[in-house]
């Protein structure tokens, strides 16, 4: 089985977020490696310290793609002068509705919560396809290094990362490894964890705040049902025809040694 570079190799420790990591180093199309220092994925950036910002500046990160919804951005907004922001809104509608249900005394089992997350991923595939088409357009229109994120950097960000890695020819099992790294790296803010624990059972919170293979698998099932294959989805739904795909690979892959 192909193996991914270790989490410690790609994780960049920052004070203000926990899930910031480089997508470089993976083996892609025709054995070429993803370039280090070009594309990063993360949880939200509102709590970055001055030292964190200096570190991002040293890395050359100049753009931030934010997949969060309006309320998330209002609660944890940021305006760092060194980062050009691109808001690609995907509202966490199903999860928000579930949280509201629990807060007023409703009930969700673990199985219900897993099903909710699977429905969320199906929505990412179908309803949010235009957003991810814009995501690829941003990757192609500017060579400056970027970071893309949502709130925890796990679901919307996880699917965006999976799509990019598929487009660059990374093996599916390695894509799954990258996706699951969130469970090693993401640390919930203490205040948020304490607030959520007042209304939500710990076993349900565990599902909501982690990633599972079943979530990503549900996205692939939706792709297969509607488009037949991930290649067709990239081409037909996201606008990555042969020319755009070649351009993307030329930009983010380096020739095999």
Automatic annotation (TrEMBL):
Q: Single GO molecular-function term?
A: phosphoprotein phosphatase activity
Q: Which residues form the signal peptide?
A: none
Domain of life of the organism encoding this protein: Bacteria
| Coiled coil spans | none
Indicate what this protein is called per its UniProt record: Tyrosine-protein phosphatase
- Species for this entry: Comamonas denitrificans
């Amino acid at each position: 089985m192909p193996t991914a570079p270790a989490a410690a190799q790609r994780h960049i420790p920052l004070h203000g977020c926990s899930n910031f990591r480089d997508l470089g180093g993976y083996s892609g199309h025709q054995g070429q490696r993803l370039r280090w220092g070009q594309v990063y994925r993360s949880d939200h950036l509102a709590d970055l310290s001055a030292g964190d910002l200096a570190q991002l500046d040293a890395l050359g990160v100049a753009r931030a793609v934010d997949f969060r919804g309006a309320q998330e951005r209002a609660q944890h907004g940021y305006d760092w002068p060194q980062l050009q922001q691109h808001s690609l809104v995907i509202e966490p509608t199903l999860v928000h509705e579930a949280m509201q249900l629990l807060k007023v005394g409703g009930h969700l089992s673990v199985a219900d919560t897993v099903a909710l997350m699977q429905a969320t991923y199906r929505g990412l595939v179908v309803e949010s396809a235009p957003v991810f088409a814009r995501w690829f357009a941003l990757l192609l229109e500017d060579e400056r290094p970027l970071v893309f994120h949502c709130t925890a950097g796990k679901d919307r960000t996880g699917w965006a990362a999976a799509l990019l890695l598929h487009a660059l020819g990374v093996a599916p099992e390695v894509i799954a490894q990258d996706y699951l790294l969130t469970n090693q790296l993401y640390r919930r803010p203490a205040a948020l964890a304490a607030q959520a624990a007042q209304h939500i059972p710990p076993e349900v919170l565990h599902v909501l705040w982690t990633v599972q293979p079943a979530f990503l698998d549900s996205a692939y099932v939706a792709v297969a049902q509607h488009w037949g294959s991930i290649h067709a989805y990239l081409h037909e739904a996201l606008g990555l025809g042969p020319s755009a795909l070649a351009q993307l690979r030329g930009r983010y892959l380096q020739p095999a040694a």
